[in-house]
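Q: Entry one of two.
A:
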Amino acid sequence: MKIDKLSLMLLIVCSFARAGVVAQGVRASRQELEARIAAFDDTHVFARFKREIKKKFDITDDETAMALRREALRYLTLSVLHPDKQLPMFSKHVDEYWHTFILFTREYFTFCKRLGVPYIHHQPNVDKSKPKQGQTLCDFARIYEQTFGEKLPEVWLRGKKQFCTDDDCGSGCSICQSCSTCNL
């Protein structure tokens, strides 16, 4: 099949649009992504998530559930805004929302498309004795603060010790080694 130049240019522009790139070659801003997220209806996902965190972590209050949801969606936003950085998931509670969300495949695919990416892959950490390669928690906190203009919320620090290889969190493991410098 032969494609004329105009059709080829249109195909290229549409491909960039699907990838979250606008005509000037600039990705969607954080504000644009957050607006797209706010408009997304995840009622069924959130209901199941609340059941899961109650069963797995004994978290029952809506305020904490909403904070975990917000941070999971912000993590996905960071993944889109910083595709060049390896951003490990540092919270099993935040990660639980992502796990739940992925089960709702249609909604998850629609959500990813709204963020301008085909799919945000989840790479599980199969070796629980150490974190995945990539940014440290302190690096993540800096990227978070630079992107959202706020300190990393407390919900990220729950379960932080799960990544520590030492009984005394903060005494030198690969995640916590610089926590004293970034005040986590």
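Q: Entry two of two.
A:
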Amino acid sequence: MENKRLMLVIGVIVIIVVGVIAVGLTMSGNGDDDDNKEEEGETPTGVTVTAEQNGETITLAAGGTLQIELKANATTGYEWMLESELDEAILKQSGEPEYILPEVEEGEEPPVGAGGTSVWKFEAVGAGEQILKMVYVRSFESEEEPEELFSITVTVE
């Protein structure tokens, strides 16, 4: 009787463990939760770039999205401006740039003078190549050299 009860308990534990593993594998899919990640031989449909990709070539599928996130500090008067003229048959800007303040604890304000992030969104319209040049400038100082430059080449397939 003791052996039957022990075997029953062990059997239940094994079933629970197998069930938990099965649920975990089902919820994690193939381990790739990002639908925009590039599969071997496929062109990504969504890419986010930062200053680390300055000077690089980015490849997107037509219909895909490009998001550029650059550090900025609006309190200094500097802002990122698009210097390139866009060929909207290849790449078009989606809305106005957004300035995002740094995250702070709930109920707190960001410190005065804290920097943030300038976020620019673009849509890949059709096949071609577009050079995106951006400058970090004070709009009221037109004679001054840009504080920073950012440039990428976008290839739409």
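A: Comment on entry two: DSSP finds one helix and nine strands in the chain. Helices lie at 2-28.
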